[in-house]
Structures are given as structure tokens and as C-alpha cells.
Amino acid sequence: MDFLINLTPHLVNGIALGLLFALIALGFMLIVGVMEVINLAHGSLFALGGYFAMMIIGVEPGWFGPLGDWYVGLPAGARYSFALVLGPIAVGLVGMLLELCLRGTYGKDPLFGLLLTFGAAMVIEELIRIGWGSGEQFLQTPPAISGAFIWNGLIWSTYRFFAAGFSVAAIILVWLFLERTPYGAIIKAGAHDSEMVRALGINLSQLRLYVFAFGVALAALAGIIMAPIWGLRPHVGVDAVIPAFLIIVLGGVGSFVGAVIAGVLVGLTVGITGAYASEWSLMSMYLLLIVVITFRARGLFGKKSMLEN
Amino acid sequence: MNNNTGFGAWITRPMLITFAILVSLPFWIDSVGLYQYLGVEIVIWMVYALGFNLLLGYTGLPSFGHGAYFGIGAYAFGLSQLHITESIWLGLICAILFAALGGAIVAAFLSHRRGIYYALLTIAFGQVFWFLSIKWHTVTGGEDGLLNIPRPDLNIGFASFSLSSNEALYYFVLALFVVVVIGLWRLVHSPYGTVIKAIKQNEMRTGFIGYNVWLYKWSVFTLSTALAGLAGGMFAMAQESAYPDVMSLHASGFIVMMVLIGGGMVSFWGPVIGAAVYFLARDLLGSATETWLLWYGLMFMAMVMFKPEGIAGAWQGFIKRGDASTDGDKKPVTR
Known about the structure:
The complex is a heterodimer of chains A (about 300) and B (about 325). Chain A is globular and about 60 Å long. Chain A contains 12 helices and 2 strands. By secondary structure, chain A is mainly alpha-helical. Chain A has one domain (about 1-310): ABC transporter involved in vitamin B12 uptake, BtuC (Orthogonal Bundle). The termini of chain A are far apart. A two-stranded antiparallel sheet of chain A has the order 1-2. Chain B has one domain (about 5-255): Orthogonal Bundle (ABC transporter involved in vitamin B12 uptake, BtuC). Chain B has a two-stranded antiparallel ribbon. The longest helix of chain B has 27 residues, at about 215-240. Chain B is globular, with a radius of gyration of 19 Å. The termini of chain B are close together. Classes of the chains: A mainly alpha (about 300), B mainly alpha (about 325). The interface of A and B includes residues 125, 127, 293, 307 and 308 of A.
């Protein structure tokens, strides 16, 4: 029993981490599905989300006249909620810009889209460096969700529970959006067969624009939630995007359930190895991937994908 | 010069021009404001890029974890010098063998895969090696890496030369580069080369003809990692150290960028041009602005958007203007 109680914090941390990874992975997967682009800039946009949120929370008095002063007067929780909404929207706009650049690569080897976004990742990272410096930054959280509490003789971080709960809510909302709205139906159809969707009279280039913006907005949302846990560095995105790749491959490209389950699996693996051999905790997820992929070529829930050609 | 027999099959005009430029490099590089060591770095990366392009440009297989094998080569060179004996040949052979061994094991996992799964698995394996290099302190020296690797004298049986000056090292590295270029040129114009080009165009059909696609993909990856290991060994010799930086995802991405900017998708010489452009951009842009990666990244994005065939592709288009087909997509490497 002692053993189990000692392990519980690591399990909670692992699940919270895994759910956030799953959120990043879902945005990534939507983009892969609809546009057939491996978005290597996903991690940089994840980081950008955190930086935008920091800026939105940290507005100084006198920046935007009376409106700004009213905003600064708001409690920390309200400003944090603002950041959670405005940050992803701002990153979504950046994503739209990137999608416009990507248009030239459609219909060619998927390699070109991947390379363009690799270049974009470099550019965004350098822009973050120019804008906010290379040093580690800190995103403030409102007092209601920061700090820690003691339960059963163990210290638990409140924020981890908030992060896990928030990710679950976000994942459910994304699922409802995809499964229960007409827009979701169009996106899923676009991922399945974009030519047919176009033939049905749906504007494909507009669809791609919005899906890309939506996908990177999810990354930004995850970035904001993750920032207080990991801190903000210009290259923090790499730590997020690599697990997201792994989760996609592990869960199977195109599978919503696969991404969530693989996300939790990766999170738990990292969390549990973190408890016993913290040095090697990040390595364990690569080994997990290699083991799974050796036995199941398309991941846990994968179907045959266009991207294999 | 496209005859496949005699002298022209081994040495071509672009080859002679490239060699001539590179041989004369130490005599003029100082006077254009650069320095001797840059030449060593460029030629080492040219070997690395040529090996990488065998995989990317000729077989159409994207690897985003190639830095790992470069790093394995560097560590193998360093460890053999520090723990076994000081010998250039032993060091380089160890570098090639261990990188190829790592590559062969990874390729066994990879070669059934295609497209996105292939790319993602190369990333995963690359990260595994990178993690090992950082965490396995007792062997690799952790984040600091191996320091004070000796740069042994070159012993070719009857004579022995000191490579302590950068000029001497440059000519040694260049000699290996010449061997690699001629060897690769022959390889890609052999029946083997024809099959890997066919795999790039359509893997399934190549299989239907009766070629063992798995074996070709496996051997190309292994060969490419062996060359990365050779380059890594030379790099450890030049730097007199080996460190995990070269194995990171970023470093692995740079080699892809180099090959693409140069035009590896359409030309044998693409990687050579790309490596030179990368290092010149690093030094020239880097001395002009601290944020050179921003400008290099923007340049790269523009290149992918408007000229995905790279510099060599633009040059080919310039030579035979009027030729209709210019999209560099899935076309075999011709020259």
C-alpha cells in the first residue's frame, strides 16, 4: 500500500502530462489528416502560445488607455482566462499566415511541406529570441490554482490537477466539435478524402486555412497550460512536439481515441520512469514507441494512410 | 560525358572543376576574408551531405535523425584514440564501422516503413542515440563530450605526415572527399543506383518487378550512415573533441536543409553546393547579425516555396531554359 501511495503523485503527473501531450497531438493530427502536412513548426507555435499568454497577463497600466487600465484592474484569474482565449486565437492567426506560405507545396511530395515548416520553426524560434530574449521566463498563474496542498501526508501540486482537468475538458470539447457539429463532419471528410469534399462544393482552401489555424491553436492552448510546469524557453517547443509525433505514430495516424490513449500511455511511462530513474524518463517513451511499432506497424489504432505513399 | 565506359564513367567535368576549386582553396581562402579551418569544416560536411543525399535525393527516404550517426562516428573516433591507440586509420575505421552498425540495426526497424512513419521513426531513433550520448557519462562524457582527442600523424606505410596544421588536415580530408565522390558517382550510375532511383519513383512497382525493396532500403540507409560516421570521425579529428550537440534534432534538420538548398533532389552536386552555402551563410550572415538563423530560415522557406529543386535545380533550369518540365517532384536525379 505504501508503494502505491508513493507512486500516486507520479501517476497523476504522468496522466496530466499525457493528456496535454494528447492535446498537442490532436492539433497535429488534424493538420496531418486534412492537409497532409507534417507540421514541424507545431512546437514553436506551442511555445509562442505560452509567450503570448505571458504578454496578455502581464499588460502594464497605461498601455491601451482606459480599456487597458480597466483590464489591469481585473483579478488575476480573469486575466488568466483572457490569456487562455486570446493566446490561442493570436497563434491561430500566425498559423493562418503559415498556411498561406504552405499553399505552394500542396500536391507535391509531403517532404516539402515538412521542410517548409522546419524553416518556419527556426524563424519563429529566432523571433521569440528577439522579442523576449533567450532566458527562461515565467508564466504567472492565479492564486486559486497555484500552490500545493497536503493530503495523506504527501504534497500535491494544485496546478497539476488543474492542468489534467483542463486537458480532459479540452479533449472532450474537441471531440464534441468533431463528432457532433457539421463543421467537424466536414473536417473529418476532408481528412478522409479531400478531393471528394471539393467535389461536394466545399471550399477546400478555406477549410485548410481554418483547420490549420484550429490545429495550431490547440498547440498554443497546450503551451499556455504547460508553461507554468516547464517554464518558457525559446526552444521549449521541441520538448513538446517530439512526444506529440510519437503519440501520433503510437496511437495510429488518424485515430482520435488512439491519440488520447497513446498520450496517456506516454505520460504514464514518462511519469513512472521519472519516479525510479529520472535521468532516463524521456528516453523511455522512445523505447515504448520502438517496441510498439515493431509489433504493430501502424500503431495501436492506425489505419492505412495516404501519407505512406 | 554521359558515356558509361572508360574515363568518363569515373571522372566527369563537374568533378574536375569541383576538385580544382577545392584543391586551390587554401591558397585564396585567407584573402577573401575567411580562414583555413572553415575549409576543413565545409569538406567534412560535404561528405556527410553526399552520404545523406544517397538516402534523401536518390532513394527518396527522409531521415530526420542522421546527426546520430555522425555523432556515433565522432565518439567512436575519439574513444578509439583515447582508449586503444593513436592511429588515424583505426579511428576512421572504427567511426565508419560503429556508425554503420548503429545504422544497420536502425535500418532493420525502418525498412518496412514508408512516408510519415519512416520519417517519424528516424526521429525517434535519432533521439534515442542523442539521449544516450548525453546520459551515458562514463563513456561519452555527458554534455561536455570527449575532450582532448589527439589528432594523430598520418601514416601511409612508407612515410608519416603531421596533420597538426589546418592546411595539412584539409588536404587529408579533401583526399577522402575525392574518394567518396568518385565512389558515390560510380554507385549511383551502377545497376544498384538504378534500383534505388526506381524505389524513389514508385516503391511498390519496384517490388513488383522482383527487386527486394527491403534489402535495398536497408543497405542504402546503412551505407548512408557509414558515410555519416566517416564524416563524424573526421569532425572529431578536426575539432579534437566529440560532443552531443551534433546529434540533436536541430543538427539533424540542418543536414536536410543543406541538401535541399543545394538541390540534392535533382543533382548529384546539390549536397556539395548546399554544405558550402550553409557554412558561408553561417559565417557571413553570422558576422553581420546575431540572428542569422532567422534570415537563413526565411531564405530556406522562400526556397521551398518558390524553388524546391534548390540551387542546382535553378542552375539546371537556367541551362536548359525552355524545357517544359521544371517541377522537382519525384523526378529521378539525373546529373
